[in-house]
Amino acid sequence: MDGLTHRSPWVRVLVWIVAVLSLTVLAAAAVVRSTLLDPGFYGQVLEDERAYQRIYDEVLVDPRGAPATQELLDRLPVPQSTVTSNLKVVIPPETLRAMGDRQITEVVRYLEGDADRLRVTVDLAPVVANVQRLSEAYFGDAVAALQQRSEPDFQAFVQRLSEIAAQVVAGEAPLEGLPSLPLSHEQALAATDALLRLVPRDGRAEVRPTVQAALDRGNVTAALAAIAPAAVTERVRSAVAELVREASDGTWVLGVDLDASREVAEQAEHARAVTRLFQEVVEPAAAVLCAGALTLLWFSSPPPTARRLMPLGWVPAAAAALTGLTVLLLRVALGELPFRPPPAWPPAAIRLFDDVQAAAVERVLTTATVVAVILLAASALLITVSWVWQTRPSLPRLTDPRHAPLLTAAVSACALLGTMIAPVALTGAGPRICQGSAELCDARYDEIVQLASHNAMATTADRFIGPLQDPDMVGQLDAGVRVLLLDTHRWERPEEVAGRLSASEFSPELRDRLTRVLEQVNPPHPGLWLCHSVCGAGALELEPSLRQIGDWLRANPTEVVTLIVQDGVDGEDTRRAFERAGLADLLYTPDADPDKPWPKLKDMIDSGRRLVVFAEKADGPAPWYRNFYRYGMETPFAFRSPAQMSCVPNRGGTDKRLFLLNHFVTAGGGRRLDAGTVNSRDRVLERVHACERERGRPVNFVAVDYATIGDALGAVQQLNEERLHGDAGWPGAAPAGTVPGS
Predict the structure, then answer these.
(1) Nearest to 28 by CA among 327, 337, 232
(2) CA–CA distance from 139 to each of 230, 494, 692 (Å)?
(3) I need a surface site. Which of 396, 457, 527, 552 has the fewest CB within 10 A?
(4) What is the reported pTM?
């Protein structure tokens, strides 16, 4: 063998090339195994790109995606708006992540040839339980929305009653109140028959006496509430049965056979074929060839051993160079991503797919680069050892161990000095920051725009039924919100809630039934709470929540936070709650004259008084607890579609220094899908500018639902930029540093 390579140098070159190529293939195999064939790789990419969060915040609120989800949402016993608002309750993030991890494992098994087809496995147990809970809570909320109105025509009365009953049973809050009309006994019988058509046949006899008695008394609300539980419960049972009809122990298994006529399926099948060829043929062959070639190089090199290491060292160096060149070529060649989603997908889903795919490609190429560096390091080690071994007698100073302590001390001193000096030299002294910007320090509180979160306590993070935000309140502050709109309540007993839900008296049987439902959803608790309407649908203790806000302010000493409280608790109890929460040193006291200009942000920050608190009803007794509508004004807030949004005056009149823009849709509760539209940067800018022109005053607070959806924060930042540079968009806009009318 040695003689063959000596007699034919071309054979030695060929052996060296085989060694380099086979080692490069093995390096590629290591990259593939640690990325594309590792389920953890995909999980990490999804986490890095916030894929699961973006499904809630971007994909499921994309208006173009509504048709794709219509069929699924129609199967649930509550309205689509309620489901989309409660997505993180119906399908919690941990459930979605578990679904993703399971499917990733299935895909990897398919690519490796361990599975003959792709299978989607979904554990519906938590989803089914949450749909049931959501349905019960929604029923109470829907009945709460009903109001009386007159309807003189009996035929119109029956028709309207049937329409509203169908809405409630379908899980939709009525857009108008219940009709009312004194009924004769015969008319009550006819109306009863109309309502009972919505109840399953086997349940009609049970509820008929209650419905008929209620209509005999003219109590339409009680009649409707009597049939709704039976009908809604039946829908819940039907929906659940449909969802788990193929289930075993709560798991719905759907087998998906690849259709070779579809583009995505063809790509998946091609990837599977390449993967199996690589694993079953190419990789084993490369391992054998690499071992054989390295053995030939070793024995074909002249002794001693030190000289034989040198050619072996150049093999990984060449493989590293080849791997690096491949990475470079791939970066150039992959100007377009390898897989294209179908154009019918909604744009948000395409963006998410592309971002995840781009991140995965980048991680693969980065991993390949790391492998190349490892090969290069191994090469350098082998070459260095060979060289030092052969030339050791001529290098005594470099190998003298007596120099080690001095060398170590010198390197350590340089590293320490560089660590201390370099950051200062590179960055210098940082500018002063106020409310997240160096430019806002000299602006007054009443000159800037701030992002406000409507019903900030009602979050999916805290598992509210009917949430209007996703992160908890601290998470919203971290995301750039600086104004929190909160509702304070005392927890009502179930019987009190049942009484409040009715526009007229409930029957004793119905009151008892509704009370039991509310007790199951959430039993009452004493104390002061942050709730959205009914505390049983979600509540946070007031004092701990205030303490968290105070902790955040102390951890962020350059920020100012504002609370606007819809106060269901009297002012004296609220004052004591703030003091017990330890916020006395943070509370700012507004000037008693609402028309006076507010201080600059830097002055508020320097004073430490950085928490402004307003009430919607109270005005005191604490001097820092002032009625918002003495100082501010607002737009309407009961918009049922984005097209209805207007700038007409609402509470607070038209001449206040602070201006609250209510920028959310409240059709039967918060609308996550509409938030994806109205929270866009362009939509916020357009409405703020329009309302400023119409009202002649600058907007200070932009209140939104789902503040982390869309780019309302980007719009607020752009508005502040406009004002700082004197091009605010309202009539008679003043130069930076002034407010019209100040």
Answers:
(1) 327
(2) 11, 14, 40
(3) 396
(4) 0.57
Is there a contact between 442 and 737 (Cβ–Cβ < 8 Å)? yes
Phi-psi region of 527 (alpha: psi -120 to 50; beta: other; left: phi over 0): left
- Residue 98 burial class via C-beta count within 10 angstroms: exposed 0-12, middle 13-18, buried 19 and up: middle
Q: Which two tokens stand for residue 320?
A: 């590293």
Structure tokens that stand for 714 in this block: 């980007």
Location of each CATH 3.20.20.190 domain in the chain: 450-491+539-724
Task: Choose among 54, 48, 52: nearest CA to 99.
Answer: 52
Does the domain at 450-491+539-724 match CATH 3.20.20.190? Answer given as yes
Q: Which stretches in the chain have pLDDT values below 50?
A: 1-5, 7, 75, 77, 137-152, 171, 175, 243-244, 246-261, 394-399, 404, 407-408, 411-429, 501-507, 510, 728-742
Token readout for 467 is 């949430």
* Among 537, 418, 482, 375, residue whose Cα is nearest residue 720: 482
Q: What pLDDT was estimated at residue 172?
A: 53
Beta strands 483-490 and 450-453 are parallel
Of the candidates 670, 658, 618, the residue with the CA atom closest to the CA atom of residue 456: 670
SS3 566: strand
- The span from the CA of 741 to the CA of 732, in Å, is 10
Residue 662 is predicted with a pLDDT of 95
Helix (H, G, I), strand (E, B), or coil: what is residue 88? helix
Cβ distance 634 to 652 under 8 Å? yes
The residues with which 531 forms a beta bridge, in sequence order, are 539
Q: At residue 367, what are phi and psi to the nearest 5 degrees?
A: -60, -40
Q: Give the long-range contacts of residues 180-184, CB within 8 A, separation 24 or more.
A: 180/148, 180/149, 180/150, 180/151, 180/218, 180/220, 181/150, 181/151, 181/152, 181/154, 181/157, 181/218, 182/218, 183/154, 183/215, 183/216, 183/218
DSSP E strand stretches across 226-357 = 247-248, 251-256
